[in-house]
Hints:
Elements: E1 12-16, H1 17-31, E2 36-42, E3 46-50, H2 51-67, E4 74-82, E5 86-93, H3 100-103, H4 127-137, E6 141-147, E7 151-159, H5 162-168
Parallel strand pairs: 2-4
Antiparallel strand pairs: 1-3, 4-5, 5-7, 6-7
Amino acid sequence: xKGEITKINTNFQIIEMKDFIQQIHTDTEVSxxxxxxxxxxNEEYKVEADVTLLQQAIRALIENAIKYSEExxxxxxxxxxxxxxxxxxxxxxxxxxxxxxxxxRIFDRFYRVxxxxxxxxxxxxxxxxxxxxxxxxxxxxxEIDSKMNKGTEISIVLPIGETDAxxxx
Length: 169
C-alpha cells in the first residue's frame, strides 16, 4: 500500500531549502554514528513542496547511502540551484555502487539489486519506488550516477518556486 502513493493528502507550501537541508543534515549526524556526513553546498532557493513527503524522500536516499556503503565512509549531501530554474538535492556515498543494468530498474516497485550484494540489508524493494513517486508528485525527476565499487550519487531535481523565478529574471 505504501508503494501506491496515488491518493495522498498533500500539503504544499513554499520551503526555504537552505534551512530544510541544514536540518536534515543535523538530524542525520545525530542519528547515525556509523558514517561521516558532509554538507558540501547548501544554496538558498525555494521550492513548493510537501515538507513531510520531501523529507521522507531525502531520508530514504540517505538511508540507502548508509545501507550500501561501509561503516566509517563518507556521505555527502548537497543542495544547489541550477540554471535559475531547478533545485537539486544530491546524496552521494562511497559505497558498492550500482551496475548500469540495475540503475535502469532500481526505482521499479519490488526490484532488488543482486542478492549477493544486498546480504543482510533487508528491505522490500519499495523504498526507491516511493522516492520516485514522491518526486513525481513534486513535478521533479531523479538522476543517478553510479560507478561500481566507487559509489552512487542520486539527485532529486525539483522546479524552483515561482517566488524565486520572478526574482532571478
